[in-house]
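Example record

One chain of 127 residues, shown exactly as stored in the release files.
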Amino acid sequence: MAPLRACVGCARPLWARSLSTAPRTPHLTLFTGTHCSLCDDMKEVLDEVRATTPFTLSLYNIRDDDAPNVHYWRRKYQYDIPVLHVRWGEAQSPEDYELVRHRTEADALSQALQRARRAESRVESST
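Predicted structure tokens for this chain:
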């Protein structure tokens, strides 16, 4: 039996289209370091944004020698922390979308998350 289609000639089944339009919770990764006051400021902004915008959060300390791929991330961000990445699905790596770096305010971060959500939706709808 052929899958239901949203319309004649549509590439994806109706059930797949309806699932892809459901909003997904973004996962944020905050690249931090020890004794980093900007990182502490970014964590406060994230706490403020979390009150109105749902997301999950992982902290990645680039100074932790036991962290996975630490040498790559340390070389990449040793002079730039904090850096915040966003991803929408398990198949993506945290590197897929850098959201902000160094400093941000709660309103600016909320807007950046909305832009990232719209960009992700466009990518999803084009597949």
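Notes: The mean pLDDT is 78.
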